Amino acid sequence: MITTETLLIKLDVNPKELSKAKIMLLNDLVERYNHGYMRRSIYFSYEEVLIKEAKGIIYGYLPEIDGIIYED
């Protein structure tokens, strides 16, 4: 189990610098991760996919996983 706070620490991001919308998206992402509903990847672990998707939310780009750019 991981929390949003733990994820932000791993990414070295100050939660005070994020909008409420981004925090909500990260909370949803962490919840999906904790329940095992992450995208599958051939090359990356679930945690690496979580980090790639979280960076996409925080920095405003679509994450690329296994050569595919994902848009939700």
Your description of this structure?
The protein is mainly α and 72 residues long. The chain has one domain (4-69). Helix content is 50%, strand content 6%. It has a two-stranded antiparallel ribbon. Helix 2 (20-34) packs antiparallel against helix 3. The protein is globular and about 35 Å long. The model has no long low-confidence stretch (mean pLDDT 88).
What is the CA-CA span between the terminal residues? 23 Å
State which percent range the strand residues make up: 5-15%
Spans of at least 5 consecutive residues whose pLDDT stays below 50 are: none
Task: Give the beta-strand count.
Answer: 2
Q: Helix share of residues? A: 40-55%
Provide the number of structural domains: 1
Strand order of the largest sheet: 1-2
Largest sheet: 2 strands, antiparallel
pLDDT averaged residue by residue: 88
Silhouette: globular
* Count of helical regions: 3
Summing up helix and strand content along with how strands pair, one would put the structural category as: mainly alpha
Radius of gyration: 12 Å
List the keywords.
6% strand, 3 helices, two-stranded antiparallel sheet, mainly alpha, single chain, 72 residues
